[in-house]
Amino acid sequence: MKFCNCLLLLAMLLAAGCGKTSPPAATTAATTATPTATSIDDILPKQAQPKLPTMKIYLGAETLDAELALTEQQEMTGMMYRTNIQGTDAMLFVLPYTTRANFWMKNCPESISAAYITPDGTIAEIHHLEKNDTNGVAAATDNIRFVLETSDGWFARHNVSTGAVIRTEKGSLEETFLRR
Hints:
This protein is of the alpha+beta class. It has helices at 2-14, 25-30, 37-43, 72-77, 154-157, 173-178, and strands spanning 54-59, 62-69, 90-99, 102-103, 112-117, 123-129, 137-138, 144-151, 166-168, 171-172. The strands form two sheets. It has an eight-stranded mixed beta sheet. It is globular.
């Protein structure tokens, strides 16, 4: 049973956009087995996923058609193996719970920018994620519910900074994804 729990935890840890967020601290503390490097590579995606369904998102005057990473597998795969990321490419990760996001870039041949976003849709942090870097980039707080990945430098080029609120055609991120 510990091995199954370990694989589930590992899948959660290694997921998304070239890396997903860590599970809540209670889950981490309960798991004591350490997986081997071989088991990590065994569960990671082996190829890029097809383009995901998109939704228009608004960042002030800017609009993006963001792919939606909604399932665990979509989050785990994220932008892995994608090449030629364009200035209009974006992926929105809707995390299963509010957490201290921690994304990495294993199997991601291009650098990207990532905004760590609070449950109400406010950009709390913007990070550069270096291509193929297996070191996670952790959020400064444990109040992150969404992550928006874009081409490298997109936020700076479009004058979008922390404090900006992201909306969708259906309302706030909270209204769109969390109130069901």
